[in-house]
Amino acid sequence: MDTIVRAIPLEDFLLDILTSSGVQGLFDLKSYLGDSAFAELRDPACFRLVQPAHHGIRWPHDQEISSDTILWDLQQRGDTDRAPDTASDLDEYQSSALPTELAPTPLHRGKGKDVETT
Fold it and tell me: Is the CA virtual torsion 92, 107, 99, 41 positive or negative?
């Protein structure tokens, strides 16, 4: 089963999704916000608390969406891609996908160890 390994909240209730198989895309949560179970997520501060979970994504008050639902939605919208295959491409992708203040510190990968560079 494909799991969600990254869910980055973006503007306009979009989530930048990456799955364990390398599928990536933008998941639009707006169509779910009319449901009373997701009403709290209309608050951008609550929306930004999203986390990958065992079978999808979730928020602190138990709002959840399954990885199957997310993948189906991404495929229906044709908004999927494959994540970069090499470590340097992944560092570049992750840095470009995040606002500057949230971008990860580059890592030097060598001999089986990730070493933070400054």
Answer: positive
Torsion of CA 101, 82, 73, 16, to 10 degrees: 0
Q: Which domain holds residue 14?
A: 4-82
Give domain status of residue 103, yes or no.
no
Contacts of 111 (CB under 8 A, 6+ apart): none
Helices (H), 6-79: 44-47, 67-77
**pTM of this prediction?**
0.67
Specify the number of domains making up the chain. Answer: 1
Position 75 scores a pLDDT of 87
Backbone dihedral angles phi then psi of residue 3, each to the nearest 5 degrees: -115, 160
